[in-house]
Amino acid sequence: MTTPKVRTIGVIGLGLMGTAFTWRLLEAGFAPVVWNRTPEKAAELTAHGARWSDRPIAECDRVVISLYSSEAVAEVLDRMEADLQPGQVLIDTTTGEPAQVEAIGLRLAGKGVRYLDAPVSGSSEQTRMGEAVVMVGGSTLDVEACGDLWPVMGGTLHHCGPLGSASRMKLVTNLVLGLNRAALAEGLGFARSIGIDPAAALEVLRGSAAQSRVMDTKGRKMLTGEFSPQARLSQHRKDIEIIVRDAAAAGLELPLSSLHLELLRRAEARGLGPLDNSAIARLWGVGT
Questions:
Q1: Predicted model pTM
Q2: pLDDT tens track for 228-260
Q3: Residue 69 exposed, middle or buried by CB count within 10 Å (0-12, 13-18, 19+)
Q4: Which of 25, 75, 227, 265 could pair with 276 as two cysteines, CB 3.0-4.6 Å apart?
């Protein structure tokens, strides 16, 4: 009997999303080779079958990257540049800046390295459950070369076009998603202010024309004040800054997102940045 080939894959970045991806890979029978700036974050994963490496790019033909920003991605690739090999595929799930994503891709192409931007729409918990939506930008051939990975990373895949297009689409989804969260938080705060139990208001909202998936994923967290992070508020503030800046560069005003950014900065000033993005509800006295 032929022994099945172990599918080794690198994972760079073990924050909330990178950790969720790694668990999914382990459960799907992959052999993740992991790296993080703070090695202690790998302890639980290595105890369950992942392997630590100081040079994951040197050891793997395919590497998933999940970091805070495009600047962090560029910095790590600078650090590991000597290990880049022609024919490799780097799958960058970071919610990055499209222009920087394209610049990184151009640089890697000069070394014969294939690069896909593949940000995910969904929290780390949704990713862990296989319910996230994966958006990918890059050549069709490179996307097809990772066909075994996409069902592991998410429940739905959208090939958005060339490199950078997925990062742009992720910003669009984050704009709408973030405003949905803020609107729900404000609505629950308003309900409380006029004498309506926020829990009762949420129940009615979920059955009304105002319903959104945010009510299912974040409503209970807002009501209970249980803001352990699935996606941090400070991360979303970073994304909205990119959205407002890129819209301004295109000559488009985004009044709702500009106000949303102001609210997120206000929340950070109150120390809510490390908490789940649903903690914005505390600005209206919900979840306190």
A1: 0.91
A2: 999 999 999 999 999 999 999 999 999 999 999
A3: middle
A4: 227
